[in-house]
């Protein structure tokens, strides 16, 4: 925006010597014809994308969403059609993607973390009430079964619904919202379906289906709150809703047991006097309860901080070990006299070239007590994955094996960029090989390696596969089956969120927010430290 | 000025192009989701084609289209709950009966009502298994249970008791014919699903049941004296005892031990039969034997069923499909042809058993079985119970492990 004379960006003015084109190149306004065409093509693609996104939003009546889509499309048009926004042309795609795929998920996770979203608390209150009432419709024992034909008194798509019913004896009835009456003069086929009835229009399956929503609500009253309801297209039964919601007391009364369940809008469920709840609940905001739970509740706090500590140890250990191993091999293969270097390098890089998923599973099997490679080869009887510390060692070992080739590659590249003369000069000055390495090679190496180490640390901090595929977070102690010996925060979160039992999204989201904050903090601190490092080097 | 008009031209051209892109998009008419008149069914990919084919008749009779979408079976429950919450769930889906409690708790399925005739044609326990609070929520169509697979060359006779099995297996092992007595997956985290057969035989129980067979989550039996005694008996065969049951045998290697004739017995499921046939060994299916003088071993029975999603746009057709078509013998048989699973429909089961002795043998092995409890509380038991059982097998303190698991489960359920 602050660039001088943006109006002439990329446009050579006649007479004056042609200036080198400014950023924007052929995509800048007044570029070549091809550039214009490409621009038109991309913009129309983008607009089509916008319309494609807006249509379902329109169907769902989500006006905020449509507004957002329109705003983004308008912004893109403005940026790419205006000549004054050259820097924005470069920044907009990245920023839009950053917002869409990084910031929005983080915000969504944060908003979920202050709710009780979990199994039994997914929808809103109206939905829960509807489900409770609908699920309580029980069929009265010994009540007759009817063969159903759905008809109307008017047009197929708008007329009032009528149930034409035939019972086992072959008597035919017409059921409306007012009640049941005899139906005479109707043709009934062998299966009991009415094929023609005077004054009624019979509906085809597709026509009935089109009115599914009405049909769900429709019941022919038969007294005492009971009603005849449809089940599919061709049968009906008599039943009554046992549980009924009363808005006045915000409670649900069970007419069978006489229990009254009162809504608890803080917990999002109906509870009776004994504290028993109805299974169907709804989503409510719980403030910072989820955070408080694992920071303050002794059991959960114990798990959380224990896992956090091991998580840091794991990431540091793996990062440190892959660095040391990778660098050591790189230094060994850097010796000029070494023969067959290429072959060695290929061998060393092999683990990196294989699918890490398959490798993790292979490592898991190698640690098997009875059939695993380690115990068989070494003649041991170590219960590798059954004991906390051996399992931790196993996970670290497998990760070092998978991770060191990368470090080796980077270190090799960095070493080759360091002139050998520096080391020779140090030796002439009387430095031993260790001193030369420690004071000359290593500092130069670290300039290139520090960002890589930070990235490796951040990656391993959340290395889900490494733990999940080898130990599933185990071994567990029976008194705490949610937090295992090798659990990282991310595997712990996953188990909570996608548990076989009860998915606890709210709580898992709170944990994710914590992980986000921790990793952000670590990254910011280490990046600023690496900046400091660079300045020292200068 | 010239450049300004160029921009305008570019913008107009872009909009025009977009318009053509959209109009061609519309002509496809291919929208996702549950358009009215199209019954969307979720199934696992293995069965998708079979259902598509079997439902063709239904589609034609009712003048609608049926669209079967394939998802991994284990993902269906979670995806369905999320899709239902977002309002784009299918009309009908295939699921396991033990999901019922959780589906009901989330209000994601709608009740179905079978007529007396329809219900009468289906195995009674299967209908009960799909019921929750006295209400039926899905129509069962197939069942599966684990059984004992035996290498008839090594062990010609089916063992009557678990003791006999261990005796025969140990003799073979000592003679050097095999290296294992029994291939039964335990794994580091335990396998309560498989263990249940022995657990119930020795007198253990998870949840109490009332007279009508309804599970009572308030009567948790994991830490009861009966259950502890049962696990102690099983632990006698564990790593510190006979060494028959070991954590090093898991679901990854159990089948191979049997196929490579390293173990004469294998606690297997219907999903192993394909590989067993390919392995080229002579095998026979028999019930999992219980302990001598104790109760019969009860393997868990899992039912697969068709559910109707709550709030489906096509609820009338969906209800019609699951009540009238899924209960019909023809439909079940055409599904069976594409994907052989033991049907729960009495007539279909008879037809199929006459054809395939394995199906009959599996059904017999499940005769003493019990449906997996479908209450939502059941989900909370797997991990703690598995870990306690693994601990018991490893030779740890059984009482301590089971009581700790009991407390954990009770705490989770109480929330």
Give a written overview of the molecule.
The complex is a heterodimer of chains A (538) and B (415). Chain A is α+β, with helices and mostly antiparallel strands. Chain A folds into three domains: 20-113, no CATH class; 137-241, Periplasmic binding protein-like II; 295-537, MetI-like (MetI-like fold), CATH 1.10.3720. Helix content of chain A is 53%, strand content 12%. In chain A, strand 3 (161-166) and strand 4 form a beta hairpin. In chain A, helix 7 (289-296) packs across helix 8 (298-332) and helix 13 (420-428) packs across helix 14 (433-461). The two termini of chain A are 33 Å apart. Chain B has a domain at 38-144 and 302-371: 3-Layer(aba) Sandwich (D-Maltodextrin-Binding Protein, domain 2), CATH 3.40.190.10. Chain B has 18 helices and 15 strands. Chain B has helices at 2-28, 45-54, 56-62, 73-86, 100-105, 116-120, 124-129, 162-174, 192-201, 225-235, 254-259, 273-279, 315-325, 329-338, 346-355, 357-365, 382-393, 398-414; strands at residues 38-43, 65-70, 92-96, 131-132, 135-136, 138-145, 147-151, 182-183, 207-209, 215-220, 265-268, 283-286, 300-308, 342-343, 370-371. In chain B, strands 1, 2, 3, 6, 13, 14 and 15 form a seven-stranded mixed sheet that branches. Chain B has a four-stranded mixed sheet with strand order 8-11-7-12. In chain B, strand 4 (131-132) and strand 5 form a beta hairpin. In chain B, helix 9 packs across helix 10, helix 15 crosses helix 16 (357-365) and helix 17 (382-393) runs antiparallel to helix 18 (398-414). Mean pLDDT of chain B is 85; it is low at 19-35.
């Amino acid at each position: 925006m602050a660039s001088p004379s943006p109006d002439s960006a990329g446009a050579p003015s006649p007479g004056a010597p042609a200036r080198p084109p400014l950023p924007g190149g052929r995509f800048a306004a007044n570029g070549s014809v091809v550039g214009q065409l490409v621009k038109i093509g991309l913009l129309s693609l983008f607009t089509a994308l916008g319309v494609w996104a807006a249509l379902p939003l329109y169907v769902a009546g989500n006006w905020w969403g449509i507004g957002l889509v329109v705003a983004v499309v308008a912004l893109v048009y403005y940026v790419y059609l205006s000549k004054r926004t050259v820097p924005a042309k470069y920044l907009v795609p990245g920023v839009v993607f950053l917002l869409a795929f990084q910031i929005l998920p983080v915000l969504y996770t944060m908003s979920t973390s202050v709710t009780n979203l979990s199994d039994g608390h997914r929808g809103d209150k109206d939905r829960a009430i509807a489900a409770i009432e609908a699920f309580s419709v029980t069929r009265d024992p010994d009540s007759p079964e009817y063969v159903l034909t759905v008809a109307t008194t008017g047009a197929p798509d708008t007329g009032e619904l009528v149930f034409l019913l035939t019972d086992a004896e072959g008597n035919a009835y017409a059921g409306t919202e007012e009640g049941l009456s005899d139906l005479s003069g109707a043709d009934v086929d062998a299966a009991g379906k009415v094929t023609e009835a005077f004054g009624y229009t019979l509906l085809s399956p597709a026509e009935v289906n089109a009115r599914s929503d009405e049909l769900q609500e429709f019941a022919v009253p038969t007294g005492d709150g009971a009603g005849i309801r449809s089940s599919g297209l061709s049968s009906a039964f008599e039943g009554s809703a046992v549980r009924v919601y009363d808005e006045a007391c915000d409670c649900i009364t069970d007419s069978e047991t006489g229990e009254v369940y009162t809504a608890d809008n803080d917990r999002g469920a109906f509870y009776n006097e004994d504290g028993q709840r109805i299974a169907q609940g709804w989503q409510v905001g719980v403030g910072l309860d989820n955070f408080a739970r694992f920071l303050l509740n002794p059991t959960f706090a114990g798990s959380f901080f224990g896992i956090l500590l091991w998580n840091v140890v794991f990431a540091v250990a793996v990062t440190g070990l892959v660095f040391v191993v990778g660098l050591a091999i790189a230094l060994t293969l850097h010796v000029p006299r070494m023969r067959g270097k290429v072959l060695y390098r290929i061998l060393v890089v092999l683990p990196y070239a294989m699918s890490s998923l398959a490798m993790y599973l292979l490592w898991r099997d190698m640690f098997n007590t009875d059939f695993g490679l380690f115990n068989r080869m070494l003649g041991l009887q170590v219960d590798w994955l059954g004991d906390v510390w051996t399992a931790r060692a196993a996970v670290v070992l497998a990760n070092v094996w998978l991770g060191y080739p990368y470090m080796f590659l980077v270190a090799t590249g960095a070493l080759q960029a360091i002139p050998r003369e520096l080391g020779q000069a140090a030796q002439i000055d009387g430095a031993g090989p260790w001193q030369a390495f420690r004071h000359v090679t290593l500092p130069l190496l670290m300039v290139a390696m520090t960002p890589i180490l930070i990235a490796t640390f951040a990656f391993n901090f959340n290395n889900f596969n490494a733990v999940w595929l080898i130990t599933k977070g185990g071994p567990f102690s029976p008194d705490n089956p949610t937090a295992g010996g090798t659990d990282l925060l991310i595997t712990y979160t996953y188990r909570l969120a996608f548990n076989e039992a009860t998915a606890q999204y709210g709580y898992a989201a709170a944990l994710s927010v914590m992980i986000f904050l921790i990793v952000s903090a670590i990254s910011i601190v280490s990046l600023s430290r690496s900046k400091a490092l660079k300045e020292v080097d200068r | 000025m010239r450049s300004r008009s160029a921009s305008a031209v570019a913008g107009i051209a872009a909009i025009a192009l977009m318009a053509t892109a959209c109009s061609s998009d519309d002509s496809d008419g291919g929208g996702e989701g549950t358009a009215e008149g199209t019954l969307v069914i979720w199934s696992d990919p293995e069965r998708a084609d079979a259902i598509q084919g079997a439902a063709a008749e239904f589609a034609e009779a009712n003048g609608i289209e049926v669209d079967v979408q394939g998802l991994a079976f284990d993902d269906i429950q979670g995806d369905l709950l999320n899709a239902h919450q977002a309002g784009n769930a299918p009309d009908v889906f295939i699921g396991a009966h033990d999901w019922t409690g959780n589906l009901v708790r989330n209000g994601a399925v709608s009740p179905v009502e079978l007529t007396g005739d329809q219900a009468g044609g289906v195995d009674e326990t299967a209908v009960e298994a799909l019921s929750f609070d006295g209400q039926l929520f899905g129509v069962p169509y197939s069942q599966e249970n684990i059984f004992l697979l035996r290498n008839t060359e090594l062990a010609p006779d089916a063992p009557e008791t678990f003791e006999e099995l261990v005796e025969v297996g140990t003799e073979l092992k000592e003679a050097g014919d095999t290296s294992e007595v029994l291939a039964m997956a335990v794994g580091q985290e335990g396998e309560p699903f498989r263990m249940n057969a022995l657990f119930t035989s020795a007198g253990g129980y998870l949840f109490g049941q009332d007279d009508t067979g309804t599970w009572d989550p308030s009567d948790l039996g994991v830490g009861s004296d009966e259950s502890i005694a049962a696990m102690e008996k099983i632990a006698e065969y564990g790593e510190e005892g006979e060494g028959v049951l070991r954590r090093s045998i898991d679901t990854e290697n159990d089948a191979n031990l049997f196929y490579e004739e390293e173990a004469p017995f294998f606690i297997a499921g219907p999903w192993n039969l394909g590989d067993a046939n390919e392995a080229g060994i002579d095998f026979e299916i028999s019930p999992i034997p219980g302990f001598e003088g104790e109760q019969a071993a009860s393997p868990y029975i899992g039912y697969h069923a068709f559910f109707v999603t709550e709030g489906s746009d096509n609820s009338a057709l969906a209800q019609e499909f699951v009540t009238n078509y899924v209960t019909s013998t023809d439909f079940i048989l055409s599904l069976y042809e594409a994907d052989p699973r033991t049907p729960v429909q009495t007539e279909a089961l008879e037809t199929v058993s006459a054809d395939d002795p394995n199906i009959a043998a599996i059904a017999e092995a499940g005769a003493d079985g019990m449906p997996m409890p479908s209450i939502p509380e059941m989900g909370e038991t797997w991990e703690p119970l598995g870990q306690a059982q693994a601990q018991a097998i490893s030779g740890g303190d059984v009482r301590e492990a089971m009581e700790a698991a009991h407390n954990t489960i009770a705490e989770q359920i109480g929330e």
